[in-house]
Design a protein that fits this description.
Elements (H helix, E strand, L loop, with lengths): L3 E6 L4 H14 L2 E4 L10 H13 L5 E6 L3 H7 L7 E3 L3 H11 L3 E5 L5 H13 L6 H11 L3
Parallel strand pairs: 1-2, 1-3, 3-5, 4-5
Helix pairs in contact: 1-5, 2-3, 4-5
Length: 147
């Protein structure tokens, strides 16, 4: 794999983020961790913003966010132009987010799925390519909403 990924989490996602980093190492995926660096309480929009800004600017192809429910991170990340952040709670939702929506940021709900499932979600998302076709037009229509 020759993807370049930025990863971030809040306190609720810190432990899973560390496991995801080990998974990325095993897969040979290059990444940058923008924090948080402990389980001490922090505000998730800060870390969602760090990841989304780097994806929006094209510094990284993709980003991974981890928080308790995944919702807050996803909402914050989607405020950035060009970011298509998707919340995935299963392998199937991760696969479809890439396949149909060309999601370039994945938000994972650490408190809603087991660490084993998080690993499967990450693998599914990384292994899936955008299908294009009729979905390309729809993704372009999403981009038009940003104007």
């Amino acid at each position: 794999m020759n993807k370049k990924i930025v990863i971030g989490a809040d306190h609720a996602g810190f432990e899973d983020k560390e496991k995801i980093k080990r998974q990325l190492d095993e897969l040979g995926v290059e990444y940058e961790d923008v924090g948080t660096n402990s389980a001490e309480s922090v505000d998730y929009p800060i870390y969602a913003g760090k990841v989304a800004e780097k994806v929006s600017k094209g510094e990284f192809e993709q980003g991974i966010l981890v928080c308790g429910s995944g919702n807050g991170m996803q909402i914050a990340a989607n405020k950035f132009r060009g970011v298509r952040a998707a919340l995935a709670w299963s392998e199937e939702t991760a696969r479809l987010a890439r396949q149909h929506n060309d999601a370039n940021v994945l938000s994972v709900p650490a408190r809603m799925v087991s660490p084993e499932e998080v690993s499967k979600i990450i693998k599914s998302w990384l292994d899936t390519e955008f299908e294009g076709g009729r979905h390309k037009r729809r993704v372009e229509e999403i981009s038009e909403l940003e104007k």
